[in-house]
Every structure is written in structure tokens, then in C-alpha cells.
Amino acid sequence: MTSLLRISAVALLLLCGITISSFAQGPKGKDFGFGIVVGDPLGVTVKYWTSNENALQASLGASYFGAPRLQVDYLWHINAFNSSIVKLIAGPGVGVGFGHEGSGIWYKGTGKNDKWFYRADAGLGIGVRVITGINIIPRNTPIEIFLELGPNIGISPGFGVALDAGVGIRFYP
Questions:
Q1: Is the dihedral of CA 155, 131, 64, 32 positive or negative?
Q2: Domain map of the chain by residue range?
Q3: Which of 30, 51, 127, 133 could be joined to 154 by an S-S link, Cβ 3.0–4.6 Å?
Q4: Thinking of the domain 2-171, which architecture would CATH place it in?
Q5: From CA 134, how far away is CA 79, in angstroms rounded?
Q6: 167 with 37: CB under 8 angstroms?
Q7: Are 115 and 108 in contact (CB under 8 A)?
């Protein structure tokens, strides 16, 4: 498990270490926003635009993956709708859950030995996810509204798969 933690830490550092430039592409030309997300995780969220198409987003909150849970995603904003307001978003992420998680969310096994993945100790959970969704930035407002959905794959302390879904709003001061 120690090597898995090292690999996850290096992946997180690489994800966060992507060259950050100051292209302000959020609402009203701002590059940093904060807000709330409802879903999994349920908590606070921040976003930093690194270019006119890419951004880093992070969330901290309660989750069935572990509470609290820290999630960091690298997003591409794709103009699939030919709109300056609505964009398709997609990208990979890494999550770390601390503490006890709920049961009935993570699935493990096949056949007669089917069971729900449940971490009974107060340990660390590590997972990766691929998020897709919709990003809405209404004209002449300092807000961003988003809807995201994607698989979350638990890789430690055991393998499991869940579905992350969230809706949120961010304010760009």
C-alpha cells in the first residue's frame, strides 16, 4: 500500500503541477472562483482557469468515498454546443477520502460472492475519476453553474466502482 500511496501522491503533484498561466477565462474575465457542490462530494469547490480551455477544480466535503474527501480534477472545456455560454466539460481527477465511509455505494465481486465494498477502518481511500458534464457561464454575471457526472474508481484500500454526480455554483469575485 505504501507504493500505491507514493504513486497517487506523484500523480496528484503532476496533475497540480501543470503549467499555470494567467488567462482569465471565467465569468467577467476572472480566473478564480469558489462555491458549493451538492452531490458526491457534498461541500465546497474552487476553480482556477489555466487557459481559455483548461482549468483545475477542487472540492472538499462529505462523501461515501470517505469523509472528508478532497477531489482535484483537470478539465477541458469543449465548445460542443457552439455557444459562448454553455460548454461541455471533461477530464480526469484524483480523490482522497479520509475516515469512515458509508456502505451500499461501492460494488465489489461477481456471482455468488457479490458484496458491497465497505471500509470498516478509519483509513485512507484513494480513487480516480473521469468527469463529464456541462458548464454554464451566464453573460454579464460573476457566476458559473455546473453539472458533472462520471465513474469514481477506488484503488485503495481495495478496488470498487461508484458514480459521482454533482451540481454546483461558483462565484468569481
A1: positive
A2: 2-171
A3: 127
A4: Beta Barrel (2.40)
A5: 10
A6: yes
A7: yes
